[in-house]
Every structure is written in C-alpha cells, then in structure tokens.
Specification:
98 residues, mainly alpha, Arc Repressor Mutant, subunit A, two-stranded antiparallel sheet, 8% strand
C-alpha cells in the first residue's frame, strides 16, 4: 500500500482533502500547511491553477469516514424511545443515590 494511503492525517488535513475533493474552496482559502503536506503525500496536485486529487488522493478520500446519512437515522419514535429509556435509567440512578 502506498504511504499516501496509510499516512496519518490530522483532522485539519482531512478537512482540506475533503474540500479539494468537493471543489468547495479555492487554493488561497485553504491552509497552506495542509496543502504542503497533502502535496508531499501526493494526494493533491495543482494543474492549470486548480487543485485536484491525484488517483491516490481520490482513493484516500473514498476511505474517509462519511457522516451518517438521513436514511440511516432512526425514526422519530425510535429516537424518543431511546431518550425516554435513558431518562428512566438516570432517574433510577439518582433515586438510589438518595
């Protein structure tokens, strides 16, 4: 496995990698320190005054954890049931401490 795929990235470097991948920030708005590190790892490159992911960069981006999608979120009823159960447990603990 190339080093670029398993080298540790700081949370800020991950954010910068995501921003390059999604094209939501121009180079001057991104952390220059993060960009230098990502370039050193050959995850991003500059061509025609534009940042983009290398093949390894795209693979690394695909490996990053994703936020939970709304489809995977519990239903309102499940959420309320879980919260009610936690509240009952907390009340039970506080009553036994008295």
């Amino acid at each position: 496995m190339p080093r670029s795929l398993d080298a540790p990235l700081s949370p800020n470097e991950e954010i910068t990698l995501r921003r390059v991948a999604l094209g939501i920030s121009c180079a001057r708005e991104l952390s220059q320190r993060d960009l230098v590190r990502l370039k050193t790892l050959a995850l991003v490159e500059m061509t025609d005054d534009r940042l983009h992911l290398t093949a390894d960069g795209q693979q690394r981006y695909n490996m990053l954890p994703r936020a939970t999608s709304l489809a995977a979120a519990p239903t309102y009823e499940e959420l309320m049931s879980t919260l009610a159960e936690r509240l009952r447990k907390e009340r039970g603990q506080s009553e036994t401490e008295r």
